[in-house]
């Protein structure tokens, strides 16, 4: 798929990651374009999350370069990296809410750190973000330990959206949710992505989520990436990709 | 749009936001422009709040010149509109660049609930509530410890009645090694130093009466009755009691305790009894060792300061203390061990599933067990004085 004429938000070149002597990523190249939802899939232990952690700067790859918004993330100074981090939001697998704070305080952490809003305005904005992600207002005063898995993810999403990032990283956004909650989450994601004009880098292995939200898919097999639309990847010869899209689960998801 | 508004560094496209209010007879005209983003919300908020709406029947909001809008800025616009409508004004115009229409639609459509109210922390009522809650918590905790003590004691009896299947020997031996043998260096060094300090104090004070030889009496009685066992118990509370809480607490956070129960393991048998019994066995031996180390420290000081030889020290000690003195100290050791082990395990079981809980309860476990050890030591002192021992 040629990306001519589209603005590249994330550009990975020659990424090599080795963990414990095992090569997880073997010279990966990847472009993510503005306004698209890219789904990264792969088997357990194939290094999907490591890739996401590399892009957001939590993991230093052995080789390769990572550009986000045209800036070299790996060789950026502290202050420039902070400025860049404001422009993206990350939703971790379990939400990663700060457990000592209420949900509202969690959402206000970035606001308090990077703006000088009054407390009253921050409360209003926290309430707005909560309703944006479909949480009832009484969630604001609750602590993360009082929330269910799906609510934690929504609250985590609200925190990631606090400063209106242009780019969102989602790590397994629907893992551990029941199918109904998962499909609601997919809808929410799609709606927010369109209305906020987000670029989304999503690690998942949920085929339904992929069908519902992803514009393009990057499959991580044997340390290499194969990128394309779902339709083009279905005809790929790789056995894992065949199994993934054409196994019983895959067929059911494609048929729906 | 090849290079969208977010392509450049955020500060490049950031222009100062502005609001202009013009009043046309009964129409309030509000025009806005610049960057309406979270970064600037703090300056826009008071300006918008200050707009006086009295005497108008209609309002126009023209946001056509806003060149950057995020959801915080969007919320300020929507909130202003809601406020105008709430004051009885008819908003006849609400204009915004086409590309921001979906964002505003989300904010307006979704946001039906009123902003959340946050609890006041500074009022007298809030203070009273905190005191009340705190007192209630203390009572609950006392009741909890009592209930737990009974529960474990019952399991104790079962174990004594039928050790097979209840007492886990491997775990027990491991705990004795961990809490007892591995504590030898620190306890030994500590008591040796305390022996030196006590001897020095005794010599210094008693020399005025020419009774410096009686230092050995003070040293013997003090160490064997009180200091040896007390210091050992306090060190073990800090070393093993805290470890019990942290280990069991972490297991609880990982749902390992739930897993044990579903597999059919008895948590008291598997985790608590080996720890408590191990400590009850180890602490008397540690105390014995601590007493000896303390006496060696004292003898060293007496030798260097008074020139008292080891045989002379031993003769004096023999006159000063009886086996009873030593036993009075030693008998407290298992009681202290029981308290430390029980408090450590109990607080571990109380851990909740959040990050701060393990640390908080570990601290509480150490403070509680040291407190209880000293209280019980005072109880023993009263008891022995009544019994005349």
What does this structure look like?
The complex is a heterodimer of chains A (256) and B (389). In chain A, helix 3 runs parallel beside helix 5 and helix 6 runs parallel beside helix 7. Chain A has 256 residues and is α/β, with parallel strands linked by helices. Chain A is built from 10 helices and 10 strands. A 6-stranded mixed beta sheet of chain A has the order 6-7-8-3-9-10. A 4-stranded antiparallel beta sheet of chain A has the order 2-1-4-5, with helices on one face. Chain A has 2 domains: 128 residues, P-loop containing nucleotide triphosphate hydrolases (Rossmann fold); 76 residues, no CATH class. The radius of gyration of chain A is 18 Å and the shape is globular. With 389 residues, chain B is an alpha/beta fold. Chain B has 2 domains: 93 residues, STAS domain (Transcription Regulator spoIIAA); 237 residues, no CATH class. Chain B is built from 12 helices and 4 strands; from the N terminus they run ββαβαβαααααααααα. In chain B, strands 1-2-3-4 form a 4-stranded mixed beta sheet. In chain B, helix 7 crosses helix 10 and helix 9 packs across helix 11. Chain B is elongated and about 110 Å long. Chain B starts with 17 loop residues before the first strand and ends with a helix. Classes of the chains: A alpha/beta (256), B alpha/beta (389). At the A-B interface, helix 3, helix 4 and helix 6 of A face helix 1, helix 2 and helix 3 of B.
In short:
The complex is a heterodimer of chains A (256) and B (389). Chain A is an alpha/beta fold and 256 residues long.
């Amino acid at each position: 798929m040629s990306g001519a004429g589209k603005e590249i938000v994330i550009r990975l070149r020659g990424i090599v990651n080795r963990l414990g002597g095992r090569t997880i990523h073997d010279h990966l190249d990847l472009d993510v374009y503005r306004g698209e939802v890219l789904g990264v899939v792969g088997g357990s232990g194939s290094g999907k999350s490591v890739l996401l952690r590399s892009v957001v700067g939590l993991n230093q790859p052995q080789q390769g370069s990572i550009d986000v918004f045209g800036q070299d993330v790996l060789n950026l100074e502290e202050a420039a990296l902070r400025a860049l981090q404001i422009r993206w939001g990350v939703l971790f697998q379990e939400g990663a809410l700060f457990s000592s704070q209420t949900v509202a305080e969690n959402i206000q952490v970035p606001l308090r750190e990077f703006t000088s809003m009054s407390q009253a305005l921050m409360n209003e904005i926290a309430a707005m973000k909560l309703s944006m992600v479909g949480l009832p207002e009484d969630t604001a005063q609750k602590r993360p330990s009082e929330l269910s898995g799906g609510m934690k993810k929504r609250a985590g999403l609200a925190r990631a959206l606090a400063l209106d990032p242009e780019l969102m990283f989602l790590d397994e956004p629907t893992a551990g949710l029941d199918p109904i909650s998962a499909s609601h989450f997919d809808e929410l994601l799609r709606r927010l992505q369109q209305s906020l004009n987000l670029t989304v880098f999503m690690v998942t292995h949920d085929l339904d989520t992929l069908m519902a939200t992803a514009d393009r898919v990057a499959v991580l097999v044997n340390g290499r990436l194969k990128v394309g639309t779902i339709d083009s990847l279905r005809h790929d010869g790789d056995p894992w990709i065949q199994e993934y899209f054409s196994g019983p689960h895959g067929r059911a998801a494609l048929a729906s | 749009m090849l290079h969208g508004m977010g392509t450049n560094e955020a500060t490049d496209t950031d222009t100062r936001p502005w609001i202009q209010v013009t009043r046309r007879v009964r129409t309030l005209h509000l025009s806005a422009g610049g960057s309406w983003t979270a970064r600037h919300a703090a300056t826009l908020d008071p300006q918008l709040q200050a707009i006086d709406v009295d005497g108008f029947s209609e309002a126009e909001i023209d946001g056509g010149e806003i060149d950057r809008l995020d959801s915080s800025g969007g919320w300020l616009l929507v909130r202003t509109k809601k406020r105008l409508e709430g004051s009885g004004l008819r908003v006849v115009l609400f204009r915004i660049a086409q590309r921001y229409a979906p964002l505003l639609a989300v904010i307006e459509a979704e946001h039906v609930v009123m902003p959340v109210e946050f609890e006041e922390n500074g009022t007298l009522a809030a203070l009273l509530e905190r005191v009340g809650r705190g007192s209630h918590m203390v009572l609950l905790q006392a009741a909890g410890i009592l209930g737990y003590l009974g529960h474990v004691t019952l399991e104790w009896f079962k174990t004594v009645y039928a050790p097979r299947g209840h007492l886990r020997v491997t775990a027990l031996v491991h705990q004795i090694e961990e809490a007892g043998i591995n504590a030898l260096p620190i306890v030994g060094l500590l008591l040796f130093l305390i022996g030196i300090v006590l001897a020095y104090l005794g010599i210094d004070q008693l020399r005025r009466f020419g009774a410096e030889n009686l230092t050995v009496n003070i040293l013997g009685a003090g160490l064997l009755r009180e200091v040896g066992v007390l210091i050992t118990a306090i060190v073990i509370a800090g070393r093993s009691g805290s470890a019990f809480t942290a280990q069991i607490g972490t297991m609880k956070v990982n749902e390992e305790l739930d897993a044990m129960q579903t597999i059919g393991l008895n948590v008291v048998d598997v985790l608590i009894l080996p720890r408590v019994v191990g400590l009850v066995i180890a602490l008397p031996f540690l105390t014995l060792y601590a007493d000896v180390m303390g006496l060696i420290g004292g003898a060293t000081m007496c030798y260097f300061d008074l020139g008292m030889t080891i045989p002379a020290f031993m003769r004096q000690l023999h006159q000063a203390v009886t086996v009873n003195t030593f036993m009075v100290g030693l008998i407290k050791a298992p009681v202290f061990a029981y308290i430390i082990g029980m408090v450590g395990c109990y607080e571990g079981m109380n851990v909740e599933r959040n990050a701060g809980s393990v640390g908080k309860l570990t601290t509480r476990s150490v403070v509680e067990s040291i407190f209880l050890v000293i209280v019980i030591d005072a109880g023993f002192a009263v008891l022995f004085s009544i019994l005349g021992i």
